[in-house]
Every structure is written in C-alpha cells, then in structure tokens.
Amino acid sequence: MTAEQVTLQELAKMFDHSLLHPTFTDQDIIDGCDLARRYNVATACVKPYAIPIATELLDGSDVKVCAVAAFPHGNTSINMKVREAEHSIQRGAEEIDVVVNAGKVLGEKWQYVSDEVQAINQAVVGNGALLKVIFENDFLEDQHIIRLCDICSQHQVAFIKTSTGYGFVKQKKGMYTYHGATDHHLKLMRNHAAESVQVKAAGGVRTLDDALRVRDLGATRIGASATQSILKEAAARGIE
Questions:
Q1: Is the pLDDT of residue 63 over 70?
Q2: Average of per-residue pLDDT values in the chain
Q3: Fewest beta carbons less than 10 Å away: which of 120, 174, 191, 222?
Q4: Phi/psi at 174 (nearest 5 deg)?
C-alpha cells in the first residue's frame, strides 16, 4: 500500500496507541490518551489499572479503550485470563489483547491452547468486546504460528497479533532483544488465518515506511508507541 492509496484518517485508525511500558506514570497515561484523542486513532492500549483514566479522558471521542490481559508473558491460568478480561470490559475496555501461554504452545499442548482461546473469546464477545490474541512470534517456530492461526480461526477471534513488544529473546552475543512484526511472520499469519481474522502488527513499527509495509502485508491494525511521529511523517509527506 503506497502513501497515495491511504488517507491520513485511514492510517490513524490503524493504530492502537501503546501505553504499556512498565515505568509509565499516571501522567504518561494522561498524555498518551490526549495524543490518541488528538490523532483520532483506533484505540489507546493500556494496562488494566489505567482503564478508568483512559475511559474518562476518551469519553465522547471516537477512540476506544483497549486493555491487555496476562501481559506480557501469558502465564496465568485460563480462569484468571477470563476474569481479567471480563473485569476490564466491565470497567470500560472495548477491546482485549491477551497473550497466549507460550510454554503450552511450544510444548504443543494444543487442546489446552484451544480451550484457552475459546474460553477467553467467548467471555470477551459475550460481554460485547472483541479479542486480539498475541502470539509472541519471537518465541515460536513457523509450525507453532500456523497452528495458532488455525486455532484462532476455528474460534473466530477478531484479531491475531504478532507480539507484545516485550518478548525478549537471548541472542548469540548474550544480549536480549526481539524482532517483533517481521515480514515473514506477517505473511505467514495472513496466509494461514481465516479471511475473517484480522492481523495486528506490533513490535518494531516505528516509521511511516514500516506502517505502510505492514499494511501491504495484510495488517489492518498496528500496535505502536511511535504513533505521533509516524502520523506527523505521513502529513509531512502529503498524506491528507
């Protein structure tokens, strides 16, 4: 998708503005919600405790509140994930981004993974919200990603998402880092998920070219903290 084929508002509505860094203060959340409102993005994505702040600041706008669950490592029980999602929706979240249990995925305990996705999705949809399932692709091999696409398609989740942005993997030189939304993984997810399941690219989308590239690869939502700089760059390039 080239810059000429997208409007500034269409681009803005691809963004879940990420307010998830563990050091964020209430003022950081307030500033981030103000930015999300000014740019009229899709959602402000917050940690559960910040939902009341976000709902108050975004009231009357077209920006929704998205809350994460079992973030960032996905290691709580199925029941706790369900309860956290339901509690967040009751407090005003309209979208939930939940992290799958990577250990169960890597161990190929597919019935457990399927039961988890089904239970959370039923709870979220039953409470009038939509679910995004975070795979954390840096931890996984292609065959795991493909199977997760199948499971999420079977249970008709709204979105599948590449990563949290906090799935750090030890590299050969001993440093911990992550790749996030790679072209290979986005293609894999788009090709193996049902057409009805949308793809969210998160992790490493920092420039306008990054955003346009992941859009070309089939992503319809982007999780990013660089929202303002990307949209400013779009306006500077003449996207209207």
A1: yes
A2: 96
A3: 174
A4: 95, -10
